[in-house]
Write a structure and sequence with these properties.
Oligomer: single chain
Order of helices and strands: HEEH
Structural class: alpha+beta
Shape: elongated
Number of strands: 2
């Protein structure tokens, strides 16, 4: 792939907006023919809760790996 091809491919790509970045809207998700509505602010709270539980564990694992 030539450099010009890479540049044209990069220019064609456009960034997508995350649903959780805009807490004012809800997201409709279709699973097995059923449509579910996900509140963006509830999603943001859930992601924050996961971060508070997972990141300390990852930090401890990283510390043990660095010491070993």
């Amino acid at each position: 792939m030539a450099t010009d091809d890479k540049l044209s491919h990069m220019e064609a790509a456009s960034p997508t907006k995350s649903a959780s970045s805009d807490a004012k809207q809800s997201i409709n998700v279709q699973v097995d023919g059923e449509t579910y509505s996900i509140d963006a602010s509830a999603e943001k709270r859930l992601v924050w809760k996961f971060d508070l539980h997972i990141l300390p564990l990852l930090a401890v694992m990283y510390l043990f790996n660095a010491l070993g």
